[in-house]
Amino acid sequence: MIQLPVLMMGQTFTLVCKEGEEGALQAAVNYLDKRMCAIRDGGKIKGNDRIAVMAALGIAVELLSTKAPAGPLSDLSMAEVHQQIAHMHTVLDQALTPQENLF
Q1: Average pLDDT of span 61-81
Q2: What pLDDT score does 28 carry?
């Protein structure tokens, strides 16, 4: 494990990551810092904890609305894929429950 000092909104944090993942972690830090600074500079939200939550929510919305570039699920957002998987689990559980009673 490697300790990586990073700067977010003017504060230094020490994060830990696996060797070789420093670049990806630094890119994530830079992305989060940019989002948090934009929210702070907008002036509507005060307090680093609130700014961090709003940035996290914005990033979560981006992630869940991301669509695959190609393939059978390319027309679905990540949230819709999760809903489809949850529905499949429900259908499988309903189908397999009677089978469990046989043993």
Answers
A1: 77
A2: 94
Question: How many CB atoms are located within 10 Å of the residue 32 CB?
Answer: 17
**DSSP H or E stretch at residue 65:** helix 48-65
Type of residue at 84: Q
d(CA 61, CA 57): 6
Report the Cα–Cα distance between both ends of the chain, in Å, rounded: 47
Helix (H) or strand (E) holding 11: strand 11-17
Beta bridge partners of 15: 4
- What per-residue confidence (pLDDT) applies to 100? 63
Q: How far, in Å, CA of 73 to CA of 23, rounded?
A: 30
**Residue 41: what residue type?**
D
